[in-house]
Amino acid sequence: MTIAQLARKTVRELTPYQSARRLGGKGDIWLNANESPFANEYSINLAGLNRYSECQPPELINAYADYAGVEPHQVLTSRGADEGIELIIKAFCEPNCDSILYCPPTYGMYAISAEINDINAKVVPLTPEWQLDLNAIAEQLDNVKIVFACSPNNPTGNLLVRKDIIALLEMTTDRALVVIDEAYIDFSLQDSVKDLLATYPHLVILRTLSKAFALAGLRCGFTLANKEIIEILLKIIAPYPVPVPVTEIAVQALSPAGRARTKFQVLDLCANRAYLQAGLGMLAGVTVFDGYANYLLVKFTDADKLFNTLWDNGIILRRSPIENCIRISVGNRDECEKTLAFIRGQLQQQ
C-alpha cells in the first residue's frame, strides 16, 4: 500500500484552499491577500518559553471581550478564524450524516473544512444583489447543522442586510447554528451583529486580528458565542492553541493605545479605498462594486488579460470566481496610486 493509499479518500481527492501564499507571485506590490500595509512594532518577553501557554489566556480573552463589547465567557481564541470554522464543524456535525450550508460567492474555507471532515455542504448562491436568498435557504435546511454567512462578504465586499440575518436566525431557531463571519467587520463596526447574541443562543460570530489590526502573521482569531457553545468548543480545541508570544502581541494590539492606532489606520485604509474606487470608477468599461472592508471587487472587460499583465509586472492582485472580476486589497497610498496608474495605462492601450 502506498503512502497516498494510506491517506483518507477524502483527503486524497481534496483540492486545497488556494491561499495567496500558495499561489505565489513575484513583485513589489502585494494587494492579493487583504493584508494591512502597516507593519507595527511590538515588544516580546522571551523568558518563560519553557512553559506551556494557557489554553485560553485570561488577559487575551478579557482584552478581546472588552474590545468586542461582550462577556469574557462568550469569547474563544484560536489560531485564526480558520480554526474557529474547523472547530465549529467538528463539534456540531456528524460525519457522513449532517450538512453545512453556505452561500457563494464567499470564503472558500467553509466548504473545504466541511469536506475534510466528511460533512456534506449544501450550496445556496447569494442573490444577484449578493444578499441571502432566504426562501432558497429555507427549502434546504433539512439535516443542516450550520449555516455560514460572511459580512462584509469576501470577495464581494458588501454587507448582508441586517433584517435578513435576523430572518435567518429566526428560521434556524432550534435547528441549526448560524455563523456570521465578521473577519472584516472592524472596517464597519457599527454593522456588527454581536448585539444579537443576547437574543439568539444559536448565533456564532467569527473575528480575527489579521485584517484591521495588521496581524495576519500572528494567526490570532476569535469565536464569539453564548457560553454553552463556547464550552462545547473548549472540549475539542487543542491543549495549547495560543503561543505565549501571540498572547503578548495580541494584548498589546488590544490595549487602549493599540486600539487607537488601529482606528487611525482603518481610517487611512478607508480613505485609500475611496481613492481607488473613485479612480477606477472613472475608467471606461470598469465597474467598481461598493466595498465595506479593506478590498474592492472590480469588473473589467477582460479581467484575465489584465490580471496576467499586472502579475507579470509585479503587481499581485487576486483572481475572483466571479466572471471578469479582480479583487484588489487596499494598500498604502503609494501602492494604490501605482496600481491605479498601471491599470489606467493598460486600459488606454486597448
TrEMBL record:
Reactions this protein catalyses: L-histidinol phosphate + 2-oxoglutarate = 3-(imidazol-4-yl)-2-oxopropyl phosphate + L-glutamate
GO annotation terms (biological process): L-histidine biosynthetic process
Entry EC no(s): 2.6.1.9
Cofactor(s) the protein needs: pyridoxal 5'-phosphate
Modified residues (N6-(pyridoxal phosphate)lysine): K211
Pathway assignment: Amino-acid biosynthesis; L-histidine biosynthesis; L-histidine from 5-phospho-alpha-D-ribose 1-diphosphate: step 7/9
The entry's keywords: Amino-acid biosynthesis, Aminotransferase, Histidine biosynthesis, Pyridoxal phosphate, Transferase
Superkingdom as given in the UniProt entry: Bacteria
Protein's UniProt keywords contain Amino-acid biosynthesis: yes
Top EC class, one word: transferase
Gene3D superfamilies, A to Z: Aspartate Aminotransferase, domain 1 (3.90.1150.10), Type I PLP-dependent aspartate aminotransferase-like (Major domain) (3.40.640.10)
Cited InterPro entries: Aminotrans_II_pyridoxalP_BS, Aminotransferase_I/II_large, HisP_aminotrans, PyrdxlP-dep_Trfase, PyrdxlP-dep_Trfase_major, PyrdxlP-dep_Trfase_small
Residue ranges of every copy of the Aminotransferase class I/classII large domain listed in the record: 48-341
GO MF annotation list: histidinol-phosphate transaminase activity; pyridoxal phosphate binding
Family matches, as PROSITE patterns: AA_TRANSFER_CLASS_2 (PS00599)
UniProt-listed PANTHER family: HISTIDINOL-PHOSPHATE AMINOTRANSFERASE (PTHR42885:SF2), HISTIDINOL-PHOSPHATE AMINOTRANSFERASE-RELATED (PTHR42885)
Subunit and interaction comment: Homodimer.
Family indicated by similarity: Belongs to the class-II pyridoxal-phosphate-dependent aminotransferase family. Histidinol-phosphate aminotransferase subfamily.
Protein name as catalogued: Histidinol-phosphate aminotransferase
